[in-house]
Amino acid sequence: MSVLEGKIVAITGGGTGIGAGIARVLAKAGCRVTIGGRRLEPLQKVAESIDGGTPIRTKTIDVADPESIKAFFSDIRETVGDVDILVNSAGINIQKRTMAEMVPEDWDRVMQVNASGAYRCIYEVLPAMRERKDGVIINISSVAGKRAITLGGVVYCASKFAMTALGTAISNEVSNEGVRVTNVYPGEVNTPILENRPTPVSQEHKDAILQPEDIASLVLGICMLPPRAHVPEIVIKPTIQQWV
Ligand SMILES: NC(=O)c1ccc[n+]([C@@H]2O[C@H](COP(=O)([O-])OP(=O)(O)OC[C@H]3O[C@@H](n4cnc5c(N)ncnc54)[C@H](OP(=O)(O)O)[C@@H]3O)[C@@H](O)[C@H]2O)c1
Question: Which family does it belong to (predicted)?
Answer without folding.
Answer: Belongs to the short-chain dehydrogenases/reductases (SDR) family.
